[in-house]
Design the sequence.
C-alpha cells in the first residue's frame, strides 16, 4: 500500500504534472511567475491549501456524500468546501502575515476557483482513493505545481534581460516557454501508469 | 523640485551591452562555433561512411534550412544578418547528427525551422535561448513523427545503396528483449563493444561512432572550449547507475560500458550539455547539472516509455539551469545587509 502511495506521489509531481502534462492551473502559473518571491510564496500557500482541503474533502466525500448517495453533487460541494476554507485562510493570513497577504491576496482569491484545487478532490473521488492516497496525490500535485512555478520564475527572470521580439514580450513568450518545458517533460511519459 | 531630475534620468541613453565574452582576446563567438562544428567533422564523416547517401541528404537539408531560417528570421526582426558566426550552422549540424538516416527529408526541414525560429530567435537569438535549439528541434520531430523517428536502418557500407534494412538500435533491443538477444546478434561482448565503439550499428547519424565523437571532444577539451565539469559527471553517473540498477538479475549486474557507449550519450554529454548558453555557468552548478542529467537519462532509459533519454534529460536540465545558477552562485563577501532596506 505504501508503495502505491509513493507511486501516486511521484506520478502526480512529475509525470502527470498539473501544468506541464494536464495543462491546468495556467492562470496562476502565468500570474505569479514574474517574480521569484511571489512564486515561492504562492507555492507554499498552494501546497498547504491543497493538502488541507484534500483531507477535508475526503472526509466529506467518504462520510457524507457516499452514504447519502450525493456523488452527483461533487463539483458543487467541493467548490463550496474550498471556498469556505480559502476564505478562512484569507482572513487568518490577513491577521497573521499581512505582508504576505498584500502580496498574494489577489491570488489567494483566485485559488477559490482554481482548477487544480478542484481537480485534486475530483480525481481522488473518481479513483476512490483512501486518506493517505488522497494526501499523496494532493502533496505530489502541490509540490509538482511549486516546482513548475519556481523553475518558470527563474527562467522568466532570466528572460527579462533577453532581446525577445517586441510582439512576443511578456505573456506570449511565456506560453511558448511553457510549451517547450512541456515538451521536455514528455520524456517522463510512459514511466508510471496509474 | 524633484520632477525635473526624474525627467532627466529617464532621457539618459541606454547602455547597450553586446553578448559576452567581453575580454579582449583572439577568441570570438564565431571562432568557437566554427571550431565546435569542425570537431564534429569526424563523426559526420563516419555517419556518411556507414549510412551513405541518405546521411548526406539529411545533413545538407539541415544545414541549408537552418541557415535560411536564421537569415529569414533576422531579416523579419530587422536585425543584422549574422550567418558567418556559425551558430546556425552548428545548430543544423547537431540536429542532423540527432536524426535517423532514413528520415524523409521534411523531418530535417521541420526540425531545423523549429530549432532556429522558435527555440532560438523567439527567445532573443544567440546567447539568450533557454533550451538547446537542436534538441528542441529533435524533440519536436520525435513527438510529432514518432513512428518515423524511431525506425532506424542498419548501417550500409556501400555509398549508393538504395535498399536499407530497418532494424532496432542496441538500446531498443536491450529494453524490449534483454541483453541475451543482443549477445545473440553480436555473438560476444567484445564484438558488441567494438561495433559500438567504431560505430557499426543502427542509430541516429552522430550517435553511432563513439571513437569519432571522442576524437572531436578531446580536441575541444584540449582547446579548453569545453571543460570536464558537465560531461564527465554526466557519463560517470550513467555508468554507475546503470551498473547498479541496469541488470535483470538484481542490483550491481548492469552493463555500464554498453550503456555509456550506446544512444546519444557521448554526443549529448560533450557537445550539447556543454552549451554555454543553456547550461549553468557556475562550476559547482555544472557538476550538479551533469549528475542530474545522467540520473534522468538512466531513469528514462530503464523506466520510461522512450528507449533513449539523453535528449529529454538535457532539455529538462536546461529548464533547471537558471535555478541552479541562482542557487549555487558564490557568496559575495564583505557585503553588509542594510537594515530596513528592501532587497
Sequence:
Amino acid at each position: 500500500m505504501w508503495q502505491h502511495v509513493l507511486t501516486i506521489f511521484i506520478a502526480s509531481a512529475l509525470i502527470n504534472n498539473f501544468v506541464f502534462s494536464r495543462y491546468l492551473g495556467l492562470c496562476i502559473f502565468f500570474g505569479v511567475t514574474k517574480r521569484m518571491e511571489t512564486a515561492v510564496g504562492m507555492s507554499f500557500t498552494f501546497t498547504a491549501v491543497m493538502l488541507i482541503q484534500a483531507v477535508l474533502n475526503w472526509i466529506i466525500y467518504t462520510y457524507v456524500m457516499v452514504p447519502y448517495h450525493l456523488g452527483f453533487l461533487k463539483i458543487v460541494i467541493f467548490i463550496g468546501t474550498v471556498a469556505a476554507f480559502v476564505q478562512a485562510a484569507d482572513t487568518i493570513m490577513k491577521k497573521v502575515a499581512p505582508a504576505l497577504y498584500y502580496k498574494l491576496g489577489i491570488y489567494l482569491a483566485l485559488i477559490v476557483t482554481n482548477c487544480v484545487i478542484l481537480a485534486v478532490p475530483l480525481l481522488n473521488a473518481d479513483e476512490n482513493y483512501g486518506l493517505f492516497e488522497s494526501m499523496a496525490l494532493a502533496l505530489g500535485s502541490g509540490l509538482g505545481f511549486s516546482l513548475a512555478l519556481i523553475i518558470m520564475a527563474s527562467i522568466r527572470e532570466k528572460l527579462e534581460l533577453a532581446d525577445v521580439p517586441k510582439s512576443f514580450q511578456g505573456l506570449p513568450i511565456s506560453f511558448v516557454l511553457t510549451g517547450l518545458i512541456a515538451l521536455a517533460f514528455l520524456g517522463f511519459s510512459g514511466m508510471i501508469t496509474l | 523640485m524633484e520632477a525635473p531630475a526624474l525627467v532627466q534620468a529617464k532621457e539618459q541613453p541606454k547602455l547597450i551591452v553586446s553578448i559576452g565574452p567581453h575580454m579582449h582576446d583572439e577568441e570570438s563567438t564565431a571562432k568557437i562555433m566554427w571550431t565546435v562544428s569542425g570537431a564534429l567533422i569526424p563523426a559526420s564523416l563516419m555517419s556518411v561512411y556507414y549510412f551513405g547517401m541518405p546521411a548526406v541528404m539529411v545533413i545538407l537539408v539541415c544545414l541549408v534550412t537552418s541557415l535560411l531560417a536564421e537569415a529569414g528570421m533576422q531579416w523579419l526582426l530587422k536585425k543584422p544578418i549574422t550567418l558567418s558566426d556559425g551558430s546556425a550552422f552548428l545548430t543544423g549540424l547537431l540536429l542532423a547528427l540527432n536524426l535517423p538516416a532514413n528520415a524523409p527529408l521534411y523531418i530535417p526541414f521541420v526540425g531545423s525551422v523549429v530549432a532556429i525560429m522558435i527555440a532560438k530567435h523567439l527567445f532573443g537569438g544567440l546567447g539568450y535561448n533557454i533550451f538547446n535549439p537542436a534538441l528542441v528541434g529533435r524533440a519536436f520531430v520525435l513527438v510529432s513523427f514518432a513512428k518515423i523517428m524511431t525506425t532506424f536502418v542498419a548501417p550500409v557500407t556501400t555509398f549508393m545503396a538504395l535498399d536499407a534494412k530497418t532494424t532496432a538500435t542496441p538500446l531498443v533491443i536491450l529494453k524490449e528483449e534483454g541483453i541475451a538477444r543482443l549477445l545473440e546478434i553480436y555473438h560476444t561482448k567484445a564484438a558488441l563493444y567494438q561495433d559500438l565503439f567504431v560505430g557499426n550499428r543502427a542509430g541516429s547519424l552522430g550517435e553511432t561512432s563513439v571513437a569519432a565523437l571522442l576524437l572531436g571532444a578531446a580536441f575541444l577539451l584540449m582547446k579548453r572550449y569545453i571543460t570536464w565539469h558537465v560531461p564527465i559527471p554526466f557519463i560517470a553517473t550513467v555508468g554507475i547507475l546503470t551498473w547498479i540498477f541496469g541488470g535483470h538479475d538484481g542490483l550491481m549486474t548492469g552493463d555500464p560500458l554498453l550503456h555509456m557507449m550506446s544512444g546519444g550519450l557521448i554526443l549529448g554529454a560533450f557537445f550539447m550539455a556543454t552549451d554555454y548558453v543553456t547550461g549553468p555557468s557556475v562550476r559547482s552548478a555544472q557538476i550538479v547539472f551533469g549528475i542530474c542529467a545522467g540520473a534522468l537519462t538512466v531513469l528514462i532509459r530503464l523506466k520510461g516509455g522512450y528507449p533513449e533519454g539523453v535528449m529529454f534529460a538535457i532539455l529538462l536540465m536546461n529548464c533547471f539551469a537558471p535555478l541552479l545558477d541562482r542557487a549555487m552562485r558564490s557568496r559575495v563577501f564583505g557585503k553588509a545587509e542594510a537594515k530596513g532596506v528592501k532587497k
